[in-house]
User: What shape does this take?
Amino acid sequence: MVAELMIGNAIVPFLFAGAFVLMALGAYHMNPSRNKISGVATGIVATVGGIFMIMNVIMFQSSSSPMGTMGPISNYMAGLGILYGLFFTMIGLILIVGAKLNVMAPIAIVVGWITLAYAVFFNMALGHIIPGG
Assistant: This one.
């Protein structure tokens, strides 16, 4: 019971940061004009969300915090948190600078494959054969 609560408390900040960044990116891409100011605003949200994710990983992994350990999957959660934190920070900085986003496409595909590998690993580690099963 305690380990589940600790893991749940660790996941919540990542979910909020990821949700805000993904909603900002989605709103930006739904805007047909995509002017410079909306790109900069979206870049700021993505950069802040990415830095927030990295800070949470550091906070949860430090031995001085009350949540110093997140249970048996702490290293994997930290890996995903840092991966998404760096990815969101890079997207944010590219939007702020104004470079084309197609340079991020290969990196986005690699991040997607790594996330899929994590999902398959957790699915097998928990003893499930099919997703959600």
